[in-house]
Structures are given as C-alpha cells and as structure tokens.
Design a protein that fits this description.
24% strand, alpha+beta, homodimer, Beta-Lactamase, 45% helix
Chain lengths: 157, 157
C-alpha cells in the first residue's frame, strides 16, 4: 500500500486527533490507501510503536503476514462501497506487537467522512484482549477436561 | 448534577464529534459537571437514547441508581485531580438501557483537555458486553457444576 504524508492529515484534523488522544482505547485511523493517519497514546501502549514510528506506515505494521491478503481485500471493498461489513460487530483477530509477540485484539471499525460525506478513511478502536482470550480458552479447556471426567461418572448409577 | 448547553459544546468540537460519530463503539463525552456533550450513533444503538435525548443530560441517564453515589464520587475526584484511577484498565459495570433493561458494559475513560491543557471533560468508550458476560457466567457455572460431578468420581479408584 502507498504511504501518504501523515502530518498533512493530522494537521487537518487537530480536534479529532485531540479526542482520539484522550481516548483510553487504541484509536487508529487509516486513509483510503491504508496508511495510518491517527495513532493515539493507547495504540502506542498496546502495540509498542510510537506515533512517529506508526504514522504514514501501512496497517501491515500490526497485521500478521498470513492475515494481510484477507485484510486488504476487505479494506479495498470497504473503501469502494463505503460500507463496513461489520456494523455493530466487534471483531476478534490476532495482531502483532512491535516486539514480535502475537496479540489478541478486539476492535470495531467505522467509516470516517468529510463535510461533503466523502469517505476519507477508516477508524478502528482496539482493545488488547490477549489475557482475556487466554482466560476464556482456559475455561473452555477446563469444561472439556471435566466433561471427559464427568461423563463416565454419570454413566454409573 | 447541573446541566449545560449541549449545542455550544458540540459546535466547539465539530471535528472531534465527527470522529466520535464514525467510531463503532459508544463514545460519550461529559463535561466537568457530568453533563453529556458528545453521544454518538453507537451510544444511541447501545443505550436506546437518541443524541437529542442524551445531550445535556446527566450521566445518571445510564447509571443504575445504586451505583450513582460511587460514580459521582469518582467523577468529582477525577475532575479535581485530572487523573483517572484507571489508566489502561477496562472497567466492567452494569448500566441502564432506555427501556429499563440492565446492560453489562465494558469501558475505558480518558481526560479531554483543551489547547492549554485544561481538563474540559471525560471521554468514555463503551462496549455492550451483556451477552458476553452471560456466556462467561454460563461457562463458569458449567465448570462449577462439572466439578461437583467430577470430584466424587475422582475419589474413586
């Protein structure tokens, strides 16, 4: 994906960047080509990249290699149609930390539009749910283990 | 809590409101007195109140009665100190839908500041996790039920 001048975008949306900066979840805005134009403090915390390192870069920065093709297919379609598939849905996917660790993130996406309703990008709001996923997996495994123990027991009178 | 003129606040932050509107999670900004100044489309979807119904109202609109005192104690302290207790934490609390239903929400909070770094409000980003909580509760109950069954079984040779 081509890169754009991040400073032009952030200057044009100082107020928006101010609110994004205040938000406690990662807020990542990307332009129609998929270049990052907003990267707030929580995004720095979750992914390990500073704003200086992330702005202007492609979203590949945090997308695992095996997910990139599907990611960009969906991205291009969303920009073309102006509609996200997801509506109110929270998406759960793997992502990459700067240090190479895999994260489990939960995010929503929305279309960013200018005053004339033209789509200028996509905003993702992202939570790191790596620990929560591990806990849920542990619970499901515990259920499976217990069911394996309990089932023979149940067959006894 | 006193109410303020919501239109003055939304006009002053058109760009911020534009980004907030695009975001797929509920974005609720409240002023130092706790009156709602930003209420985006996802907030309408999750809580059932339109922006017209919510703007200018107190956060009591969505706070269960039994949680209000603690909520406002924390709110006042946050406005006084300019620091949220929570940092990167995601908070999980009950909330109210317009139709009276209790919701389980997960939210982050952050301080909104003006150009001179004065705190002008608090931004909450909110997900409805009512179904997810019910599912987690069901899983934990399943573990407890299975443990009650499995434990006597384990005591057998």
């Amino acid at each position: 994906m081509p890169q754009s001048d991040p400073l032009a975008s952030t200057r044009a949306s100082d107020h928006a960047a101010g609110l994004a900066e205040a938000i406690g979840d990662a807020v990542v805005v990307s332009d129609p080509e998929g270049a990052i134009t907003v990267w707030n403090a929580a995004a720095e915390r979750i992914f390990g990249f500073t704003a200086a390192e992330a702005l202007g870069r492609s979203l590949d920065l945090i997308t695992p290699e095996r997910h990139r093709r599907r990611h960009w297919d969906g991205y291009a379609k969303t920009m073309r149609t102006g509609v996200t598939h997801y509506g109110a849905e929270t998406l759960r996917v793997p992502a990459l930390h700067k240090d190479g660790r895999q994260l489990s993130i939960a995010f929503t996406v929305g279309m960013v539009r200018d005053a004339s309703d033209r789509v200028t990008g996509i905003v993702a709001v992202i939570r790191d749910e790596t620990e929560r996923w591990a806990e849920e997996k542990r619970l499901r495994q515990r259920v499976a283990d217990l069911e394996a123990i309990a089932d023979p027991a149940r067959r006894e009178p």
